[in-house]
Write a structure and sequence with these properties.
This protein is mainly alpha-helical and 806 residues long. It contains 32 helices and ten strands. Strands 1-2-3-5-4 form a five-stranded antiparallel β-sheet. Strands 6-8-9 form a three-stranded antiparallel β-sheet. A hairpin with a 4-residue loop joins strand 8 and strand 9.
């Protein structure tokens, strides 16, 4: 019966890479790349093949195997696993690259910075100090071939083949027999003089001097070249000279060498070395020290190597957040390091932490997340946003801190494309309605209007029809002047989402009222928008076949193609609380300034071309508005249509002036609402949102009694606007009797547009119905009081001790 022995190499949990071995350093070992079979993680595998007649080399290799397995230090090559058979030795370590190959690759890429070299040498000297002072071991092989670099750029000391005890327990140093390694031996060893007085570290410090020379100047041709420092930095030259001195007695201990180099002005006294030293001891640092360190870290990351940030700083940041309660201070450096990661690494390492951070109640954490959302929003998928992030973000709308409310509004520009139907069209609109109507901060109300204009294309068709006109109309009545400007610009930015009927009956009357606004910036934008909408209506009037083309997007489904890229939206948000109001809307993201020549009719410029979507109308491009062919009006209409060319500007100055002269919004809210309800001009735009209920609805504060005979949907009687003026056949100047509205008070019921009002029977019927409803409520109240009185009188006086049941 045959028995087959199992091959230990085949059963080894690590396998060699099929790629050819790396440039192995001089010595008995050959360095291969490898990976762990179970996980696929990369490792390095040092392989020694046992050869007959090479007993001495085999003993050296086995000794190195044993030393590496038992020595554990952060600056010594980390042992993972090993295999020893009669035919070979396998030593598995962390994935590393020989220092010579690493330096050559970095030189080709631009070279190593001095701070990286200082930290690398610091690690090698620290490893030598550990061996000499703590373990009483002499490395006996310090050179370029014994140093390796891991993926974080950390230098590791290897090459333990010729190590021996400083106490002489295991005999003298083993013979190398390799000329490439023997050239680094100090001169006192070649003299074979036992009378030379030296310290146990003297030989290794000489070899350290040779390593420093090679790091800065390349391969060492001969020992005499050490006399010329070459490219060694001036701050290191004095200490280098101590290492390669002829007298071994004066060569410093590795620990003292580190102290000398870290002195003020020393070669190893820099921010990079200090950062690494702090990270090595971060677990024993005080919380206050950690906070200060993370606050200053983000400033330094730009000058640090990319590999160092990815593989050393990032794990420490994640650990500090997970277990060290570092809080919001880790966010800035965390997102800076995240820029170096691939999309897959970002999903694995950063996103889980970000999702967990959103559930934090720490205000500093929440506001920093909102401020830096642009850096990670592209890595978030829609289910994560809707189920794990948005429910926490919406709490910011109700926060008492204005800065958090403002940042929450801004963040919607980035979150809107990823929100589902319920969150976007229902939940978010409720919060926006409440903020625009009730927030005491004018800049936040302005922010809300701007944000709504930017995300309008993502709303469903029914929500757009119900929300946009009413919201922008409300904004035009805001006491805060930049909010009124934002309302006008909101109409302009979403011009393709309104039907011709809405433009004529709902939008133009609102814009006309703003032509007499006390603020010139509001009037200017109102005139621009008026010219644009009038040009649009006139072009359809001249050629009714364009109606389907112009109204193409009105009933179209929400489409990301109709809105701007999220990256460009972030620059449009206002900074109301921090610096009042800056750039409100610079330009609509999809507005392109290219002239399009269409045969047989001129087409104006600068209108967005949305993604085609099915609708009842013939699919044509709504961005092309036909203009009048009359040469006298072509210039005006083309100019009017170019609102996207305009800088929709910085309202910083207007905001400051308005805040200086206006009362607080919260103290004027009731009066403003009352004035708007009583004025016929303020009725129709808000009446479409009748189904928004509860406190957060857009309709609250703007409700009015419905008329007995409502006009057809989408129409609006001229009498509703109370323009007030002469008879309809009077061709006189309607501005003759105009009295300019003072301050920011709502317009009274008669706007001094003339002595006669254009109120019709419909207005009277509405007032009559309101009076009738009031009388019914009063009668009902009196009936209820009478019933209570009768019930109390029927029971008579209560008896002593009787229990009152009602």
């Amino acid at each position: 019966m045959w028995f087959f022995a199992r091959d230990p190499v085949r059963d080894f949990p690590f396998e060699l890479s099929p790629e050819p071995p790396e440039g192995s350093p001089p010595g008995p070992w050959i360095l291969h790349r490898g990976r762990k079979k179970a996980t696929g993680s990369l490792v390095s595998i040092f392989v020694y093949d046992v050869k007959p007649g090479a007993e001495e080399q085999t003993q050296v290799a086995k000794a190195a195997f044993k030393r590496l397995k038992t020595l554990r230090h952060p600056n010594i090559l980390a042992y993972i696993d090993g295999l020893e058979t009669e035919k070979c030795l396998h030593v598995v370590t962390e994935a590393v690259t020989p220092l010579g190959m690493y330096l050559k690759a970095r030189v080709d890429a631009g070279g190593l910075k001095e701070q990286e070299l200082s930290w690398g040498l610091h690690q090698i000297v620290k490893a030598l100090s550990f061996l000499v002072n703590d373990c009483n071991l002499i490395h006996n092989n310090v050179c370029m071939a014994a140093v390796f670099v891991d993926r974080a750029g950390e230098w590791k000391l290897g090459g333990l083949d010729y190590m021996y005890s400083a106490q002489g327990n295991g005999g003298g140093p083993p013979r190398k027999g390799i000329p490439e390694l023997e050239q680094y031996d100090p001169p006192e060893l070649t003299d074979n003089s036992s009378r030379v007085v030296r310290e146990k570290w003297s030989a290794d410090m000489w070899r350290l001097g040779c390593l420093i020379w090679e790091v800065f100047n390349g391969p060492l041709p001969r020992a005499a070249a050490l006399r010329n420092p070459g490219k060694i930095p001036k701050s290191l030259v004095p200490h280098y000279c101590e290492l390669v001195g002829a007298n071994p007695k004066v060569r410093p201990n590795p620990a003292r060498f580190l102290q000398n180099c870290q002195a003020p002005g020393g070669f190893m006294n820099n921010r990079f070395v200090e950062t690494n030293l702090f990270l090595e001891e971060i677990q024993i640092k005080e919380p206050a020290e950690k906070q200060k360190f993370f606050q200053e870290l983000s400033k330094s990351l730009d000058s640090f190597p990319e590999d160092f940030c990815r593989h050393k700083v990032l794990p420490q940041l994640l650990t500090a957040f997970e277990f060290g309660n570092a809080g919001a201070v880790v966010l800035t450096p965390l997102f800076k390091v995240g820029k170096f990661l691939s999309a897959e690494e970002y999903q694995q390492k950063i996103i889980p932490v970000v999702v967990k951070m959103f559930s934090s109640t720490d205000r500093a954490m929440r506001i920093r997340l909102l401020q830096q959302m642009e850096q990670f929003i592209q890595y978030l998928d829609e289910p994560t946003v809707n189920t794990q992030i948005f429910p926490h973000v919406v709490h910011g709308f109700l926060d008492t801190n204005p800065a958090i409310r403002e940042q929450t509004v801004k963040s919607m520009l980035l979150l809107a494309p990823k929100l589902n139907e319920a969150n976007l069209n229902v939940e978010l609109m409720k919060h926006f309605a409440r903020l625009q109507a009730k927030d005491e901060q004018g800049p936040i109300r302005c922010n809300t209007t701007v944000c709504l204009g930017k995300i309008g294309s993502y709303l469903s068709a029914s929500t757009r029809h119900r929300v946009l006109t009413s919201a922008f109309s409300r904004a035009t009545k805001d006491p805060f002047a930049p909010s009124r400007v934002a309302g006008v610009l909101g109409f302009a930015a979403t011009h393709n989402l309104y039907s011709m009927n809405d433009c004529a009956h709902k939008i133009l009357p609102v814009l006309c009222g703003l032509t007499v606004d006390p603020e010139k910036s509001v009037r200017d934008q109102a005139f621009k928008a008026l010219r644009s909408f009038l040009s649009k209506l006139e072009s359809v009037s001249e050629d009714p076949t364009q109606l389907a083309e112009v109204e193409k997007d009105v009933h179209a489904a929400s489409s990301p193609g109709m809105g701007g890229a999220a990256a460009s939206w972030a620059g449009w948000a206002v900074t109301g609380v921090s610096s009042l109001t800056s750039k409100l809307i610079r330009a609509h993201p999809m507005a392109t300034q290219a002239e399009t020549n269409v045969p047989q009719r001129p087409v104006p410029e600068g209108h967005p071309a949305p993604t085609p979507t099915p609708s009842c109308a013939t699919p044509t491009t709504s961005s092309r508005w036909e203009m009048q062919e009359d040469k006298d009006t072509t210039e005006d209409s083309s100019t009017a249509d170019r609102w996207d060319d305009e800088d929709w500007g910085s309202l910083e100055q207007e905001a400051e002036s308005v805040l200086a002269q206006q009362d607080d919004w919260s103290t004027r809210g009731q009066a403003g609402v009352a004035g708007q309800v009583s004025h016929p001009e303020h009725k129709s735009p808000e009446s479409d949102w009748s189904n928004w209920e509860a406190e957060g609805s857009w309709e609250q504060g703007w409700q009015e009694p419905s008329s007995a005979e409502s006009p057809p949907e989408g129409t609006r009687l001229a009498s509703e606007y109370n323009w007030g003026g002469p008879e309809s056949n009077d061709k006189g100047d309607p501005f003759a009797a105009l009295s300019v509205r003072s301050g920011t008070q709502p317009r009274p019921e008669s706007d001094s547009w003339g002595e006669d009002n254009w109120e019709g029977l419909e207005t009277e019927s509405r007032q009559a119905k309101a009076e009738l409803a009031r009388k019914k409520r009063e009668e009902r109240r009196r009936e209820m009081e009478a019933k209570r009185a009768e019930k109390k009188a029927a029971k008579g006086p209560m008896k002593l001790g009787a229990r009152k049941l009602d």
